[in-house]
Write a structure and sequence with these properties.
18% strand; alpha/beta; 8 strands; globular
Length: 239
C-alpha cells in the first residue's frame, strides 16, 4: 500500500473536503481508504491505496490541490486586494470568479508542477513558500484593476474571456458537467451559496452552455446576460 498525506490549516478544512468530494468515486474504484483527523490546529487526510494505483491517485490528488491553490487561495487574495467599488456584492463575486477563470489553466499548471511528485503535501505551506512567482503575478493583476469598476466594464471583460471559446458544458437540473459529463464542483471553493451555477460555468472556461431542466432565476439572468446566443436548450428544458 502507498500512503499519501494532505494537510491544511483547520480553518480551511473545507479544502480537504473538496478533495474527498471530487475524487471519491475514483478512490472507491481503486479500493483506497481515507482517514480524516485533526492535530494541533491542522486538518489531515491520509489516503492508503494499492501500489498499482498510486501514480493515478497521486496525480488526481495533486490536480485537486492545484485547484485549491489556483481557485480558493486566489479568491481569498483578490477578495482582499480588489475593492471593485461601483459593483453590487453579487457582481463583485462575478468579477472575482472571472479574474480567477481568466488565468486558471496556467495558474493551476504552475501549482500542479510544485505538488505532483509529493506524497506529503502541506497545502498552506505550498502557498506560503512555493508560489512566489504566482503571487507576484496576482499582485500585478490586482494593481491593474480600477478601484471603481462599472457594470459595463464587467460585461466587456467577461465577453473578452468568452471570445473564441468553443468548449461546451452541460447544466442538468442545477448540476454542471464538462464535455465528458464529469461533475464540476469548483464553485465549492468560493464563498456563499448564491450563483453557484453561473460561477461554476465561468470557472469551466467554456464558450457554450447546454441547459436541461430549470435553474434559479438569478443564475438564469446572469447566464443570459453573458452567454446569450451561446446557450442551447435540450428537449427537456422548459422556460
Amino acid at each position: 500500500m502507498t500512503s499519501i498525506v494532505i494537510s491544511e490549516n483547520i480553518n480551511n478544512q473545507n479544502n480537504l473536503f473538496y478533495i474527498q468530494s471530487s475524487i471519491g468515486e475514483l478512490l472507491s474504484h481503486a479500493n483506497c481508504s481515507i482517514n480524516a483527523s485533526s492535530v494541533n490546529g491542522r486538518s489531515i487526510l491520509l489516503f492508503n491505496c494499492p501500489e498499482c494505483y498510486s501514480d493515478i491517485i497521486r496525480t488526481e490528488i495533486a490536480d485537486k490541490v492545484a485547484e485549491i491553490l489556483a481557485i480558493k487561495y486566489k479568491y481569498e487574495y483578490f477578495k482582499k486586494q480588489v475593492p471593485a467599488c461601483g459593483l453590487s456584492a453579487i457582481d463583485r463575486e462575478i468579477l472575482l470568479t472571472s479574474l480567477i477563470a481568466a488565468d486558471l489553466d496556467d495558474d493551476k499548471k504552475y501549482a500542479f508542477d510544485r505538488v505532483k511528485h509529493y506524497s506529503n503535501i502541506c497545502v498552506d505551506g505550498i502557498y506560503n513558500f512555493r508560489l512566489g512567482a504566482l503571487k507576484n503575478k496576482w499582485e500585478d493583476i490586482a494593481c491593474c484593476i480600477p478601484s471603481c469598476f462599472m457594470n459595463t466594464q464587467l460585461k466587456d471583460f467577461i465577453y473578452y474571456l468568452l471570445e473564441n471559446k468553443k468548449k461546451r458544458v452541460y447544466v442538468d437540473d442545477g448540476l454542471v458537467y464538462d464535455c465528458h459529463f464529469r461533475r464540476l464542483k469548483r464553485s465549492m471553493l468560493l464563498d456563499g451559496e448564491s450563483l453557484k451555477i453561473i460561477r461554476e460555468i465561468l470557472l469551466s472556461n467554456c464558450g457554450e452552455v447546454e441547459l436541461k431542466g430549470q435553474i434559479p432565476k438569478e443564475d438564469e439572468y446572469y447566464l443570459k446576460e453573458y452567454y446569450n446566443d451561446k446557450i442551447y436548450f435540450s428537449e427537456r428544458y422548459r422556460q
